[in-house]
Structure formats: C-alpha cells, structure tokens
Amino acid sequence: MRRDILAFVSGALFTLGLTVAGMTEPRKVQGFLDFAGAWDPSLAFVMLGAVAVYALSYQLSLRRDAPWHCGEFSLPSQRRIDARLVAGAAVFGVGWGLAGLCPGPAWSALGTGNATIVLFVAALLAGMLLVRAAETVATGSARRAPPAGGAARDG
After folding, report:
1. Which residues fall within 8 angstroms of residue 22, CB to CB, at 6 or more apart?
2. Is 7's pLDDT higher than 90?
3. For the chain, what percentages of helix, strand and coil (3-state, to nearest 5) are there?
4. Is the pTM of this model over 0.85?
5. What is the chain's alpha carbon radius of gyration, rounded to the nearest angstrom?
6. Bigger pLDDT: 71 or 83?
7. Smaller CB count within 10 Å for the chain: N or C?
8. What's CA 3's distance to the chain center, in Å?
9. Of 96, 61, 84, whose CA–CA distance to 135 is shortest?
C-alpha cells in the first residue's frame, strides 16, 4: 500500500511539474528547439532544475541501504553505448522535435482530450508494440538459425 501511495504521489508531482513548466504544450517545446527562429530558452531552466534535483536525489540515495518502496535499488548494469541505444535516442529526439511532445508530458496531457496528443500516445504505443514484435521475431530467428560456420543437421 505504501509503495502504491508513493508511486501515485510521485506521478502526480511529476505531472504537475511538467504542466507548470509548459512541457505539455507542443508549441513551447518546439519554440525551445527552434534555435534559428524565435528561440524560447525557458525550458533550459526547467531542464537544469530537473538535472539538479536528480543529481542531489541520486547522491542522497547512495547513502541509503535501500529505497523506501522496495528492498533494493535497481540501477542499470549495462554501460555500453550500442547501435540500439543510439537509434532509440535519435528516434526519440526527432519525434520530440517534430511533435513537441515526449512520452512523459504526453501521458500527462492525455487527459485534456486533445486529438493530437491522443494520436501521439496511440502512435507511441503502436511503436512500442512494433519494436517488441520485431525483437521477438529477430530473437526467434536467431535461435532457429544453424550455428555459424556449420550446416544445419537433420535430426
């Protein structure tokens, strides 16, 4: 129960912060990304504030034995920058620039009923399902392929 309450309060605070900062307004985000036109630098302060809060929170969390909501911290173990990471970051950045939305603010603004935001979230979910299906097919094909350097045996 405590974990659910903490998750709800964290999500509500995140949503409020995104809304107050203007991150749920595509035109504001696109204005921030328009360096050659009418650039709006205000979101840079939002990002700097977010990075500062995260950096402080991360350092404080390292002093704890465990988080408040579960038995242990779950930190990423992979530190390698690979093609999948770069491609995902590029798609994310292009999508953010074109639509003026990223997933967090889009979910926050979904309740407005704005057709553009609803379409964005639908496309986001479809893309996630498509990638998962492609990875499943690729993984299945890799398992069925004959070993490298040898021919498949009839068993």
Report:
1. 28, 29, 42, 43, 46
2. no
3. 70, 0, 30
4. no
5. 21
6. 83
7. C
8. 22
9. 84
